[in-house]
Write a structure and sequence with these properties.
Belongs to the ABC transporter superfamily. This protein is of the alpha/beta class and 220 residues long. The protein folds into 2 domains: 139 residues, Rossmann fold (3-Layer(aba) Sandwich), CATH 3.40.50; 65 residues, no CATH class. Helices cover 37% and strands 22% of the residues. The protein contains 9 helices and 9 strands. It has a 5-stranded parallel β-sheet with strand order 6-7-8-3-9, with helices on both faces. Strands 2-1-4-5 form a 4-stranded antiparallel β-sheet. Helix 8 links the parallel strand 7 and strand 8. It is globular, with a radius of gyration of 17 Å. The two termini are 32 Å apart. Bound molecules: adenosine-5'-triphosphate.
Length: 220
Amino acid sequence: MLELRSVTAGYDRRAPAVRDVTLTVLPGESVGLLGPSGCGKSTLARVAALLHRPDSGEVVLDGTPVRHWRHRAPRELRTAVGVVFQQPRLSADPRLRLADLIAEPLRATGRRASAEDRVAELADTVGLTPDLLTRRPHEVSDGQLQRACVARALVLRPRWLICDEMTAMLDASTTAALVAVVEAYRTSTGAGLLAVAHDHTLLTRWCDRTVHWKTVTEPR
Ligand SMILES: Nc1ncnc2c1ncn2[C@@H]1O[C@H](COP(=O)(O)OP(=O)(O)OP(=O)(O)O)[C@@H](O)[C@H]1O
């Protein structure tokens, strides 16, 4: 289970972006998070992805309370979570060819030996042809780069997926393709999903349930 318990988080302790939010995602469940711009969805998604330490509250991953964040989080927790962000260009090292970008988490966790086969398998899954795998981010479209970022998020077979506005800058067909990839992964592995988006229609079609976050937290 992915549990966010009374999480308060933000960038200024006197005016948190997220205040006292509790949210649970069960294994195999897909939960959408919908809300107005600035209400703190991305901040909460980053907390759930172990990338942002909350000011208070707790994140519990499969029964283990998270005590450390970002690169300090224990490897078994970090590798349990895959993340896809809205803007692939901000989350992709511009020097890496797409094949290396997808394999990055394997190399970072000492699983280099299995990289070639796993990258080929995932490239096929996300719809990247072999010629695209040899290109760098500036040589591919946003949609192609986001396909690579989805493959990178899946490469370690995470138990939890956090998709933060994954499809916001994509056309309808790429959106449908990438949602289908995530859904196929989720249903075949039993992974849980937290999907953040503005698009009500997309989330209600995509997710088992959608949490509507109606208000922007006002500074005290
Ligand atoms: N790095 C940062 N430093 C300071 N404030 C930030 C930072 N990132 C976000 N904020 C602020 O935190 C609040 C919540 O931002 P967040 O990105 O979590 O909202 P959101 O609901 O995801 O918005 P959107 O739908 O527009 O992406 C906003 O007021 C935002 O300005």
